[in-house]
Request: fold
Amino acid sequence: MSCANKSRREFLGTTAVATASLAVAPGVMLIDMAHGRAPEEAASSSVRWGMLVDTNKCDSGCTDCVTACNTENGLSGDTSETGSQWIRKVELKDMRTGKATSLPMMCQHCAEPPCVDVCPTGASFKRADGIVLVDKHICIGCRYCVMACPYKARSFIHEALADQNPDVPRGKGVVESCTMCVHRVDKGQTTACAEACTKAGHDAILFGDLNDANSEISKRVSTFATKQVRADLGLNTGVRYQGI
Amino acid sequence: MMISLAKIRTLLNWKMGALIAALLTISAVSVASSEPESNSGRVPKPKIEIEKGDKCVEDEDFMRRNHMKLLMHKRDETMHKGIRTKKYSLQNCIECHASKKNNSVLGSNENFCQSCHSYAAVKIDCFECHASKPKVQPSAGFFHPIVPPATPGVAATDKESHGLSYSMRQQMRSNVNEQNNAGVTR
Ligand code: SF4
Ligand code: SF4
Reply:
C-alpha cells in the first residue's frame, strides 16, 4: 500500500470516528467546540477573549476578585512600591450627584495595545485570541510599557521570588500584568476573578468570547450599553464596563 | 633535500609509538569509566538522583544533548501560541524528575537539574521564574506521567504514548461541566 493511500485511509478513519462521536454525543461535542481547545491547538484569532464588568452588581466593600487573583497568580497583593497586584478596586464618585461606583480594574487587553507598540524587544505582545502578555524570556525590564499603558495596568517585579505557582512563572527584573488567567483559559476554564465574583454571588464579572455571537458576553454587549474606559484613545479594550 | 630511508623509518616508529601510547591511555580511561562506582575513576562524575525516569519522552542520549533546545522551542510555542501539550513542557519534566527527598529538581548537587548543571558549570536561570517543585506531590506510582504503563503484548500506539489529548479533553469536559453546574456563565 502506498503512503498516500495509507494517509487517506487514516483520514477517512478519523473522519468516520469524528462523525460517529458527533452523532452519539452532540452535547459534549458542542461544549468542546464552544469552550475548549485541544492542548496541541494554537490560539486563534477567531476568538477574542474579553470580560464585562457590571458595576451595578459590584459591591463597594468586596475585594473577592482581587484576593482570588492574588492567590491564583501568587501575588503579594500589597500596595507598597514593590508589592504586586494585577487587579485593583477603583472607587469613583460623581461629584455632582454623589453617586459612588466601585469597579475592578485590570489590564484592559487592548486590541491596539500601546504597551506592545512601545516595547523595544517584542516582549510585550498580543496573542491571536486578544490576550496581551509579557514574554518574560524576552523582557529586559526597561519599563517603556509601564509608561505607555493608560490604565496603569503594568508593574515591575523588584525582588527575587520563590515558590511560584508552577502555572504562573514570575521573576525579578521583568514587567508583568493581568494575563487574563491565560493558563486557565487555555484549559477551557474561566478567569479567577470572574469565578470568585460568581461564587460570592455578585456575578459582576463575565468572561467570554466577544467574537462568538452566541456567547453570554456578546449577547450582553449587543443588548446593553457598555463602555470602554478611555474609549477616546481608540484602543478597543477587551474589558468592558456596564453602568459607568 | 631527500630524507633517507632510515630517517623515515625512525619517524614512523616514533609515530607508531605515540599512537600506541595514545591507544593505551584511551583504553585505560575506558576501563576506569566502565567501573560501576562513578567516582572511583580519575574523572569525577555528577551523582544524579533519578527518582522516576524509567522512560523519558525521548532517548536519554538525545535528551542530554537537546533538552535545552526542546525547552526553548516549547517555551515559545506555549508563550506565543498557547500550545500546552505536556510533552517537553518544563512543568512535566519537573513532575517526573523532582527528588522524593525535597520534592524539587534543585537544592543539592544530587538533585536532577542541579547535579549536571553545577558539574558542567552551566548556569540555569529557568528557576528564577519557574517553580522548581511540581504542582502535585510526586505520586507513589513509578511511571512517567505521560508514558502510560505498557500493557504486556500490546504495542503502544502513537496516540497513547504521546497525546494526552483524550484525557486532557476529558479533564476539560469535566471542568466545563463543573462550572456549568456551579452556574458559571461564560
Ligand atoms: S491595558 Fe495597558 S497593559 Fe493592558 S493591553 Fe492595554 S496598554 Fe497594554
Ligand atoms: S483575569 Fe486573572 S490575572 Fe486578570 S485580573 Fe482576573 S484573576 Fe487577575
In short: The interface with chain A takes residues 75, 77, 79-86, 91, 94, 128-131, 133-135, 163-165, 168-169, 171-173, 175-177, 179, 182-186 of chain B (CB under 8 Å). The radius of gyration of chain B is 25 Å.
